[in-house]
């Protein structure tokens, strides 16, 4: 692939995304800048959800995982599908409450308690930053391999690739560019997979050279049953607690739009998920000696595919990372401005000032993610560790808070803390990691246990939904 031509095409693509994003921006109010005035139509819900879900893990990560583990790469598709379906099944009707963040939502489940709102705000902020860091890592690995630049510089360029339209255009800029990028990455990956299969005379020839056990159902014979279950649970639970997923529900124009949009997205994502896996296995068939399996797609783009296809798959991959990253950046910004900023700045704030502060908050959010991403080098481990440590307790607190009426705010905090503690401890025990692959199952069990025990030992919440909602709305800025 001609690297100079790639630079030119990528620069033109970024300028197009910036133009579209700024043109569609709603900067007249904080609600418009951070929430798109809560008016997303179905096609934008589908576009932004698909682009957000098809991020680093399910594109670069899944292809690299398939390079080493064959059909086990489909675990990303199964986990992602279950997470989307689970979110809309468990939380699809929360649009009616008018929440702006998960902090408000979970606080509502626990009687509008302000302590758990503050704790969840901090957790969801760093969860958004964590996902953003994962996408920065993925995009930078694409760039570093293809161009030969140093990884830190590639991370910075990846950040700048979406930071301009996020800061300048806000939420509507993000969802419109997401929708465009969803089309680019969807057809880019599918077209590349078909091209490779045609040139390799079919999938059968590819599967013949894969290691033993990796071509079984979900690659279970090679990867292992318990690690497979653990990774599926990890990805599913991660979706339950991904703040950007909830934000798509909050900002849909109504409940019906949110539910239908999520259902269609789940089906499209399940279809898409097979193609990065096929691409990863094709890379293994062509070159079984890659030093880093995460470079499967960049290797094909640089050394195997014709220039046009190489540029298409690279821009598709970068679209996957940037679309997901921009969503997480804005979600983290919303939490920072709506839930954390008011702790330090009391009183009413004008819309004009709030939009300005939101832009500053967006810059700070992306800067924190960039610093975190500088220390990471492996996508799959980064995501698994981040989910099990940060998001498992958040998922448990939200599900148990909503569906177990005896849950208390103390139990919710215990779920958050317990999930992290059990994850960290399990991750330090080699025998556990050897059997399970990652600490998610241990973190999940520990988080549920902590929430259950502490809730039973603390006073029950007796506030009605109306009373709890009134408390939550007292401090709502957007």
Automatic annotation (TrEMBL):
Chain ranges passing through the membrane: 5-22, 43-67, 73-94, 115-136, 156-176, 183-200, 220-242, 262-286, 298-318, 354-376, 382-401, 413-436, 442-463
Keywords in alphabetical order: Membrane, Transmembrane, Transmembrane helix, Transport
Domain of life where this protein originates: Bacteria
Pfam families per UniProt: SSF (PF00474)
Compartment(s) of residence: Membrane
CDD domains for the chain: SLC5sbd
Membrane protein topology class: Multi-pass membrane protein
InterPro entries documented for this protein: Na/Glc_symporter_sf, Na/solute_symporter, Sodium:Solute_Symporter
Coiled-coil annotated residue ranges, if any: none
Any GO molecular function: transmembrane transporter activity
GO cellular component labels: plasma membrane
Keyword Transport: yes
Keyword check for Membrane: yes
Family to which this protein belongs: Belongs to the sodium:solute symporter (SSF) (TC 2.A.21) family.
Name by which UniProt lists this protein: Sodium:solute symporter family protein
